[in-house]
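for the writeup, i need someone to sanity check this before i put it in the appendix. the sequnce is what the collaborator sent (i think, or maybe the updated version? ugh). structure was predicted straight from it, no edits. if anything looks off just tell me and ill rerun, i have time this weekend
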Amino acid sequence: MMIKITEARALVPYRLYVKFSDGVEGEIELSDLAGQGVFAAWNDPKVFEQLRISPTRRSLEWKNRIDLCADSLYMRVTGKAAQNLFPRLAHEEARA
């Protein structure tokens, strides 16, 4: 199942509320990203507050081409690892 974002809003600096298409919802703390690389734009609280759900509903987007995919946000809310969400990946061979 492809997880999609159905609702999202900024709560306080570096904290979001997100709801997903399967009904899972929760708050996500993103202070570990703030101030680093492209996320330095979030040092301005107004930039962080101006998030939007992408047209595909598969990511959150901000100005300056900042985005976070639905899967990574879902893992933060649920505490699940990638292999739990995508069990087929554990059985795929990596090819370089």
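The radius of gyration is 14 Å. Residues 5-91 form a domain with the NE0471 N-terminal domain-like fold (CATH 3.30.2020.10).
thx in advance!!
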